[in-house]
From TrEMBL:
Statement: the UniProt record of this protein carries the keyword Coiled coil: yes
Name assigned to this protein: Tetratricopeptide repeat protein
Gene3D superfamilies for the chain: Tetratricopeptide repeat domain
Protein's organism: Novipirellula aureliae
Keywords, in A-Z order: Coiled coil, TPR repeat
Phylogenetic lineage: Bacteria, Pseudomonadati, Planctomycetota, Planctomycetia, Pirellulales
Transmembrane segments: none
Keyword Cytoplasm: no
Coiled coil spans: 750-777
Domain of life of the native organism: Bacteria
TPR repeat locations: 284-317, 876-909
């Protein structure tokens, strides 16, 4: 949940990098894979004909540079890296040329000036839109590298050679991509070969250096980090050598014939990396390159093996692109079969595509993978002879969806993707890129941004008005699309103008206007979902303008952005992000100690503490907050968490912990509800009140629980219609709780049974009256199911005489309702509830119901007959409950008949399959000895043939096999494995067959070997007890 912001701007959704990609689409740019080869994540923004990367940190840095001179003790290396990273290439070169005149600069940096300049020129070339300018930058980079390489003793020599090799790789790619004439292909090949030679020189040099270091300790004569650096550069250069040769081979029209020697040389290097350095990321990455090399030679099986091995690598951020490339290779191979094996292609890639992260949507490797997967789906859609129409329609829809996603991403896949969409009859609109003119100065940029902001707000309001008016005609859709595009363009252009304008500030700039510009920029970045940049700008404003309104607005944007990032970044980055948020929150506490901004920051800290289950820390932070709605909200949240912890502890049998957590839940929920004040009552408040009533009921305070539900301010019974009218789960939960409270009061010695029975009946009547039409009856069925679940939960929390009395009170109430109602929906609820009550009344290890339990289950069966007589068709869920009732009553044939009917209609209803196998197993216990083996065999292997001559009832064996394929059925898997051993053991006893005892023992030993924990303590105890019993029977 986002904190409340004081800024009034409307919110907007857009893809963070979409605009930058659109800018790149209209120009001749380097392929993305080569851009990343030189510098990862270097996207460009157009400025005055040159594409220069302008980051948010750079904007703030340049603002400071414009107002003050660098200190003599300035950390020069970090400053150079920051300037270069933010695209200020000319300024970086000037700074490097003057570096020797600055006192205090480290000697090692002064000796590496030419290397640093080379890197700047390479970065500038990557960012350049002009082919001639790019070549000029590359030439300057090569000259700088050549000058640096003259110093053969410099420790960064291998790094310089590495950059030279990269440069040669890029130039080779540029020549290859210019056109297809053989002259350029030849030049590209020469550049790749030169790169391979450069990288090979590095490999040879570093190999010798590493040899001399072998066996030496990290004493004062050796830089402790030097060996690791050399090893890293050695592996990188080794892979680059092989990749340069592979790329050189691919410049031939027939790589397998004319480039065979180059490919074989590349394969030798890649194989060495994968065999001897597989513990390093570089060794793992070489797998995909090795697969591509084998693929080029036509050695499909070897290529396939490499791709599969790549996909089997552990999950690691550095390997994800390589996995995308491997999956792409596998799809192409599957689709090249005759006929195309689209099933294998889809199986390989679909899961990988579903697991894509937000920061990966613009990757060329992912776009290529999606393109190949889309082609596989379209091939499936075309297979109308072997597939049903529904299957082909779904396949076409899946393919079309993937294509629609990737046509928004620039890259080499774009033309083919658009053509495929056109073949499906989909018009592909060209994306027009908004033109951004350079502002004359900062004031001009701010004024333009204000106007564009106003345009975006007005356009947004127009869109909202159209949405409220409804309608979906073609003219209206066109108007909406045009307005939406205008809104997006105004934001995109405003962002770019502000970025440029802020770089133009100087000592005369009005600081308040500068603050306003940053605040608008932060807001617009948030609108564009550029949350990292929005957080950076917003936090910068808050920390540089403490105690001001602008600072507060910037802080709110930063907090909101940080919260959004928490839901987006990979799990591995969460700890670092949390650290940043904590630091920022602490700084807000200093700048706004008594303001809502600091309170909001503390609120985020509470959420982070709760996220990490740091309850004590959460309590401390909440208690530090000022009294008010914000504190009350977190008190309610913490109270509900304590309630959940109490339920879990109770379920695990830890009564002491459950009681402790229950008291804490009561304390915080009371504080949170009392602290509402005049705040608006929302559904979250009603949920908290509902939980407090549950707490009071669990504590045996039924009257107090009702008092909470009927509270005039926040009582759910008073506010349910106005706040939770469409929340069926909440209404069902509330009705069940009220019913539980009322019925529990019937167990009191001095209870007014007539009055309580009347109120309980009224609960049901109110629900019926609220949902009295056909649609309402469907919703009511869901509410009744929620009520039954809630009752089951409450029964599980009670025991002994109290539980018996509660069950009896419900039995009396349900019997009275059943006798007077003809409503099918209510009868279904009564059946479901009676079965749950009956099962709850049975002792823990009982197989057949007796006494009160049998009476309840019999009532459920009788009620079902009344439902059947009404002509209402029972749902599978109700039939399932009746099947369970018959099994628990010992009517096994009747139960199996019901389960057969259910599973004929829905074979994969796993709960019903488990019940059927259990019914056979239980039935065998009471059958005459001659029939027992047959029943145990049916429990194990299934029974009752269907029209396809396969068993409708699967048995424990097939249940186990199918449950093992899905993590969510882990509990069912271990249950089935236990019963496989149990049924076989009991079968052996009945048949007096020692071989079955041995098989039963083997069943457990095999599961124990594969799954040492045996599914947890409860399952483990059962497995071990059964194993002892079996071994005793065997005589061990």
């Amino acid at each position: 949940m986002l904190v409340n912001s004081r800024i009034s701007f409307s919110q907007h959704s857009s893809t963070t990098l979409q605009f930058l990609h659109r800018l790149m689409r209209s120009t001749q740019t380097l392929p993305l894979r080569i851009l990343r080869f030189l510098r990862r994540d270097a996207f460009s923004s157009v400025i005055g004909g040159e594409a220069i990367r302008v980051s948010i940190i750079g904007i703030m840095l340049m603002t400071l540079v414009g107002m003050q001179t660098a200190s003599a003790k300035e950390p020069a290396n970090a400053f150079i890296k920051q300037l270069r990273a933010d695209g200020y290439f000319d300024m970086t070169i000037v700074y490097l040329d003057r570096l020797s005149s600055y006192p205090g600069v480290d000697d090692s940096l002064l000796q590496a000036v030419e290397l640093e300049k080379a890197q700047v020129y390479i970065d500038a070339a990557v960012a350049s839109r002009s082919v001639s300018d790019r070549d000029d930058y590359f030439a300057k980079a090569e000259s700088s590298l050549s000058r640096f390489l003259e110093n053969q003793s410099h420790p960064r020599l291998s790094e310089a050679r590495l950059q030279l090799g990269k440069l040669q790789m890029v130039r080779g790619n540029q020549l290859e991509m210019l056109d297809t004439i053989s002259a350029n292909k030849e030049k590209a090949r020469q550049s790749y070969v030169a790169a391979a030679e450069t990288f090979q020189t590095i490999v040879d040099d570093l190999r010798e250096k590493l040899k001399t270091m072998r066996g030496q300790s990290d004493d004062d004569k050796i830089d402790p980090g030097l060996r690791d650096r050399y090893r890293g550069e050695f592996l990188q250069a080794k892979r680059n050598t092989a990749e340069a040769r592979r790329l050189a081979a691919m410049t031939y029209a027939d790589p397998a014939k004319d480039g065979r020697q180059l490919l074989e040389e590349a394969i030798a290097e890649f194989e060495d990396l994968t065999k001897n350095y597989d513990g390093f990321v570089t060794g793992a990455l070489a797998l995909v390159n090795l697969g591509q090399s084998y693929d080029a030679l036509g050695q499909a099986e070897k290529a396939k093996d490499c791709y599969l091995r790549m996909l089997e690598q552990p999950e690691d951020d550095d390997l994800r692109e390589a996995k995308f490339q491997s999956a792409t290779g596998l799809i192409r191979m599957a689709m090249s079969e005759s006929p195309p094996n689209y099933a294998a292609a889809i199986e390989r890639a679909a899961v990988l595509v579903q697991d894509v992260r937000p920061n990966e949507v613009g990757l060329q490797s992912l776009a290529s993978l999606k393109l190949e997967l889309a082609k596989a789906y379209l091939a499936k859609a075309a297979d109308k002879e072997n597939l049903k129409k529904a299957e082909t329609n779904i396949a076409e829809s899946d393919g079309r969806k993937l294509l629609n996603e990737i046509v928004k991403v620039p890259g080499t896949h774009l033309e083919e993707s658009q053509e495929l969409l056109r073949s499906l009859g989909i018009k592909v609109a060209e994306v027009k890129i908004p033109k951004v003119e350079d502002p004359k100065n900062f004031d001009d940029a701010l004024e333009a941004a204000r106007q564009l902001l106003q345009v975006s707000e007005t356009t947004k309001q127009a869109l909202e008005l159209i949405e409220r008016q409804g309608g979906d005609g073609p003219d209206l859709q066109t108007q909406k699309a045009e307005l939406n595009q205008q809104w997006k363009n105004s934001i995109v252009v405003a962002i770019e103008i502000l970025k440029r304008g802020i770089t133009m500030v100087d000592a005369s700039t009005d600081l308040s206007q500068l603050g306003e510009a940053r605040q608008i920029l932060a807001y617009l970045l948030y609108q564009e979902k550029q949350y990292r940049d929005a957080a950076a700008v917003g936090s910068f404003i808050a920390q540089t303008l403490p105690g001001t309104e602008l600072g507060q607005q910037g802080g709110m944007i930063a907090l909101n952005s940080f919260q959004m990032l928490l839901s987006e970044v990979p799990e591995a980055q969460i700890p670092n992000l949390i650290g940043r948020i904590r630091d920022f929150a602490d700084s807000l506490g200093d700048g706004w100690p008594d303001d809502s901004l600091a309170s909001a920051a503390r609120g985020i800290m509470v959420q982070l503490a709760l996220r990490n289950n740091e309850f004590d820390r959460s309590k401390e932070l909440i208690e530090e907050m000022d009294a008010g709605p914000e504190r009350a909200r977190f008190e309610r949240l913490l109270g509900r968490i304590y309630w959940n912890a109490s339920v879990v502890a109770k379920r695990e049998g830890d009564e002491g912990e459950a009681e402790k957590q229950l008291k804490e839940a009561d304390r915080f929920l009371v504080a949170g509800l009392d602290g509402i004040g005049n705040a608006e009552i929302e559904s979250e408040v009603l949920q908290a009140a509902l939980v407090l009533a549950k707490v009071r009921l669990r504590q045996g305070k039924g009257s107090q629980a009702l008092t909470v539900l009927e509270n005039a301010s926040y009582g759910p019974l008073k506010r349910r219609d106005e706040v939770a009218a469409q929340d069926d789960a909440f209404r069902g939960n509330l009705a069940a709780l009220e019913l539980n409270i009322v019925v529990s009061q019937m167990t009191s010695p001095n209870a007014d049974l007539d009055a309580l029975m009347k109120r309980a009946t009224e609960v049901m009547e109110k629900l019926q009256a609220t949902f009295n039409d056909a649609e309402g009856q469907k919703r009511l069925a869901g509410i009744y199911a929620e009520m039954a679940t809630e009752l089951q939960s409450e029964l599980e929390s009670t025991s002994g005489e109290k539980k018996t009395q509660l069950i009896e009170a419900f039995r009396v109430f349900l019997s009275r309702i059943a006798a007077t109602t003809q409503n099918p929906t209510r009868l279904k609820w009564i059946i479901q509830t009676l079965v749950q009550l009956g099962e709850s009344a049975m002792p823990a290890k009982a197989i057949k119901a007796e006494g009160q339990a049998a009476e309840l289950l019999s009532s459920a069966v009788q009620t079902s007959k009344k439902l059947q007589a009404s002509g209402e068709e029972s749902s599978l869920a109700i039939q399932f409950q009746l099947g369970r009732a018959q099994r628990l009553l010992g009517n096994y044939k009747d139960a199996l008949d019901i389960f057969t009917a259910i599973l004929t209609e829905k074979p994969t209803m796993l709960d019903a399959q488990v019940e059927a196998a259990t019914a056979y197993e239980n039935w065998a216990l009471i059958l005459p000895d001659r029939f027992k083996p047959k029943a145990y065999e049916a429990a194990l292997f299934g029974a009752r043939k269907g029209s396809d001559n396969k068993n409708i009832l699967w048995g424990w064996g097939k249940i186990s096999s199918l449950a093992n394929r899905n993590q969510q059925f882990e509990e069912t898997f271990f249950l089935a494995r236990y019963h496989i051993a149990l049924s076989r053991f009991l079968w052996g006893r009945a048949a007096k067959d020692p071989k079955l005892f041995k098989r039963a023992e083997q069943d457990i030993v095999q599961v124990q070997a594969l799954y040492p924990d045996l599914g947890g303590d409860q399952h483990k105890q059962k497995f071990e007890a059964l194993l002892r019993q079996i071994q005793k029977e065997i005589g061990k």
